[in-house]
Each structure stands twice: as structure tokens, then as C-alpha cells.
Amino acid sequence: MHMIEVTNLKKSFGSDVILEGVSFSVEKGQTVSVIGPSGAGKSTMLRCLIDLESANDGTILIEGQPLLQNGTYPHERQRRAICAKMGMVFQNFNLFPHLSVKRNLMIAPLNSKTLSPQQASEKADALLKKVGLDGKQNAMPSELSGGQKQRVAIARALMMNPDVLLFDEPTSALDPQLTGEVLAVIKELAQEHMTMIVVTHEMGFAREVSDKILFMGDKRILEEGTPDEIFHHPHDPRITEFVSKIL
């Protein structure tokens, strides 16, 4: 069974077609990078996977359970249960500005009653240490650099023990010197075989860390393969053109 299986996913905003028959699968423990030009539908596809956008048609299976089946969604409770298996990290962090770093991490497990206050506190401390932010528990988001905010966002996503992590261009809002510290955390998660889908413009990262790369263009996946296949032996000339411009 695939961890994620997407078949013929379609999404439009009115008459504006964003996704036109996207199909792919992700295996447990894989890091899959999604690359391609701006406007190819990468972020919309990711948002459909975690039900932040409703698709118009297609099938999305998460660990064999249908989030979407031939264009039909299950009832709300089932949708929420399936999406609870996933965590998402956004390009603009989406931290609560009025809460400390530690409270940002603790709020979801406390609200969902999945952890006691003591358990949530201990787990938050452990995850902040993991992402290199031990000692920042009481800091406010406004006191952090962009790279630190994104590492807090990753730790927050990990608080709920997701089976899958989705990253929507996690470094695009960062200065180049801060990008490396965020990518290092994601790289460590890849080495621990966390299942991840990463929409990224960081080609060096995609080439080094990915088990599989999806190249999106023209509202669909034009090609998928290993980093070597995509970067050195692509079949579609649009990939060669894209890579030559961005590297």
C-alpha cells in the first residue's frame, strides 16, 4: 500500500484550471520533491492533499483511506481524521504571534487532548532541542529570525506525530544565509525516513535529499524519477530548460 496515492486530481477556480489530471504516489519513508516553474500548480496540489483546498475531481488515498474518491469527499469527521495523519509547514511560518514559541508548539495537542500539559511541555522541549532552538521556549515569534521561525513551524508540525509532512516552499521567504539551517532540519528528517513531500525551488537540496522528484508544468506532472534521471537524463525538454535556468 502506498503512503499517498493521487489519481487524476483536478482543480479549478471558476474557469481557471489549476490542476489537470495529476497522478503520483509516495511510499512510506520517501522524501519526494516537487519542482517546476511558478504557476504550475505545485502549492495547490499540496493544499488539496491536506484538504485546505477542495478538488473538483480525482482520488486521494492517504494510507489507503480515501480523502477523495472519484471526486467525492467523505463526511467531515472522516476528512479530519485522515488529514490528522499529516502535518504541513507553510512558506510564511503561520505562527501565532501572541503566543510564545513553546505555546505555539503545545496548543494543538492540548486543544485536541492528545497529550497532557506535562507531556506536551516535555515533547515541546525535546522538539525545540531537535531543531536547534533549545533556550527559545519563552521567546515570541517577533524576536526570531525567519530561519528560526520556520524551524519552530517544523517542530510544531512534528508535535502531532504526523505520518506525513508536507512542505510548501519552506525556504522561499528566507534570506539565502538562513535557508541552510532550515534545509538541514528537513535533511535530518529525511535521514530518519520521515515521509515528506517538499515543494521547493532549492535544486541542490532536491538533488541531494530526494528519493523521487516530480516535475510539474502545464497543470500536471510532466515527469517523475530519481534525482539523476530528472537532472541528468530527463525525457521532457522543458525540464532541461528549467534546470538550466535555475542552476
In terms of structural class, how would the helical and strand content be classed? Answer: alpha/beta
Low-confidence stretches: none
Strand count, sense and barrel status of the largest sheet are: 6 strands, mixed
**What percentage of the residues does DSSP assign to strands (E)?**
25-35%
Helix and strand sequence: EEEHEEHEHHHEHEHEEHH
Strand line-up of the largest beta sheet: 6-7-8-3-9-10
How many extended strands? 10
Count of helical regions: 9
Average residue pLDDT: 94
General shape: globular
Radius of gyration: 18 Å
Helix content: 25-40%
Query: How far apart lie the N and C ends?
Result: 35 Å
Summarize the entry for a quick read.
This protein is of the alpha/beta class and 247 residues long. The chain has helices at residues 42-49, 76-83, 101-111, 117-130, 146-158, 176-191, 203-209, 227-232, 237-246; strands spanning 4-13, 16-26, 31-35, 57-62, 65-68, 86-89, 164-168, 195-199, 212-217, 220-225.
Molecular structure report:
- This protein has helices spanning 42-49, 76-83, 101-111, 117-130, 146-158, 176-191, 203-209, 227-232, 237-246; strands at 4-13, 16-26, 31-35, 57-62, 65-68, 86-89, 164-168, 195-199, 212-217, 220-225.
- It has 247 residues and is of the alpha/beta class.
- Strands 6-7-8-3-9-10 form a six-stranded mixed beta sheet, sandwiched between helices. It has a four-stranded antiparallel beta sheet with strand order 2-1-4-5.
- Helix 3 crosses helix 4.
- The chain is globular, with a radius of gyration of 18 Å.
